[in-house]
Amino acid sequence: MSANANAMPRPDLDARRARFADLLAAHQGLLRRLAWGFSRDPADHADLLQDMATQLWAGFAQWDGERPFSTWARRVALNVALARKRSAPPPLAGHDEAHDAPAHDGARAPDEDALLHQLRRAIDGLDALNRALLLLHLDDVGYREIGEILGLTESNVGVRLNRLKQRLRAQWEIA
After folding, report:
1. What pTM value is reported for the model?
2. Three-state SS string across the chain, please?
3. How far is 15 from 58, CA to CA, in rounded Å?
4. What's the pLDDT at 55?
5. pLDDT digits (tens, 9 = 90+) for 72-85
6. Which CATH number applies to 106-175?
7. Domains of the chain: which residue ranges?
């Protein structure tokens, strides 16, 4: 018996690549929003997006297709972002975050720019789990799906989000 007779038939790689490219394009917004939550530097943001796409492709064969691609993609992308955050060097001492403030582009009122900057700083100050919870919630992901992504029960997601919202409100009242 030849070696080819024992070989398993390979799925059509071109079809898999095309399906992946279509799904990735359709879900690019959610990846960008997650990356935004973990990176402000444009070059780092681009690298993070590339790492997310690479890991999604690497695991694409394991996606069962029965579950929504968005849930699976968020989980993979979030794991990439969290792993990168753990391995990132600490910020420079005395780093002036003023340059991180969004420039006023005329599309929003200056008050909105200040509020957006305050929200970004609040998100940056969160631990990994709370950051993930808030980013997913801000992306209008339901409690059940957040739980699936983060390995929490739906009720635990609700409790944690309520506590997080209370904490953020208290911080903003002081500021």
Report:
1. 0.67
2. CCHHHHCCCCCCHHHHHHHHHHHHHHCHHHHHHHHHHHCCCHHHHHHHHHHHHHHHHHHHHHCCCCCCHHHHHHHHHHHHHHHHHHHCCCCCCCCCHHHHCCCCCCCCCHHHHHHHHHHHHHHHCCCHHHHHHHHHHHCCCCHHHHHHHHCCCHHHHHHHHHHHHHHHHHHHHHC
3. 16
4. 95
5. 999 999 999 888 87
6. 1.10.10
7. 12-89, 106-175
**Cα-only R_g, the chain:** 20
Q: Which two tokens stand for residue 21?
A: 């490219």
Give the pair of three-digit tokens for residue 148: 């699936």
Mean pLDDT of the chain: 81
Ramachandran sector of residue 107 (left: φ over 0; alpha: ψ -120 to 50; beta: rest): alpha
**pLDDT range class, residue 119, cuts 50, 70, 90:** confident
* Domain covering 12-89, topology: Rna Polymerase Sigma Factor; Chain: A (1.10.1740)
Instruction: Report how far residue 124's alpha carbon sits from residue 122's, in angstroms, rounded to the nearest whole number.
Output: 5
